[in-house]
Design goal:
This protein is an alpha+beta fold and 155 residues long. It has one domain (29-153): 2-Layer Sandwich (Tetrahydropterin Synthase, Chain A), CATH 3.30.479.10. The protein has helices at residues 77-92, 97-100, 108-125, 150-153, and strands at 28-41, 54-67, 95-96, 132-141, 144-149. Helix 1 packs across helix 3. The chain is elongated, with a radius of gyration of 20 Å. Pathway: Purine metabolism; 7-cyano-7-deazaguanine biosynthesis.
Length: 155
């Protein structure tokens, strides 16, 4: 093994690597992006601490899969961020969830289905062949979370 060396030149497209070499394979690959948002809520018809108004720093983990394009990318991570910011964060961050979500008890189990619907709608609009939402995990606390898989939404 060669000792570590600082590169003296950068690889140049068209000279050191060709455009048709950028896609290394044609396999399905998963990509994951995580986000947080802060919100307050309370639960109805529940006799525990969560019946009182309180807040969480939610953490949302988005799993997508697809086949790499001609430059080796499934979906630009910036696109996932844009979708999250527009469809989830803009509606839920620093908000009272009982007011901004459709009529429901604002449990993680209910919220994750609403989030799936919002994300799925935007992912479809990207028109990326074979790109699909595979799984979501919504952390309400560091140790409590709900998750949802694509096949469960297709039932």
């Amino acid at each position: 093994m060669k000792p570590y060396q600082i590169p003296t030149t950068l690889q140049t497209l068209g000279e050191d690597i060709q455009l048709d070499q950028l896609r290394y394979h044609r396999k399905r690959v998963g990509v994951i992006r995580e986000f947080t948002f802060d919100a307050a809520h309370h639960l109805h018809a529940y006799e525990g601490k969560c019946k009182s108004l309180h807040g969480h720093t939610y953490r949302l983990v988005i799993h997508l899969s697809g086949r790499v394009d001609e430059i080796g990318i499934v979906v630009d991570f910036a696109e996932i961020k844009r979708i999250f910011k527009e469809r989830i964060d803009a509606h839920l961050d620093h908000r009272y969830l009982n007011d901004v979500l459709p009529p429901m008890n604002t449990t993680a189990e209910n919220m994750i289905v609403w989030i799936w619907e919002q994300l799925q709608d935007e992912i479809t609009k990207l028109n990326i062949p074979e790109l699909r939402l595979e799984e979501l995990t919504l952390y309400e606390t560091p140790t409590s979370r709900a998750y949802l898989k694509r096949e469960w939404m297709e039932e």
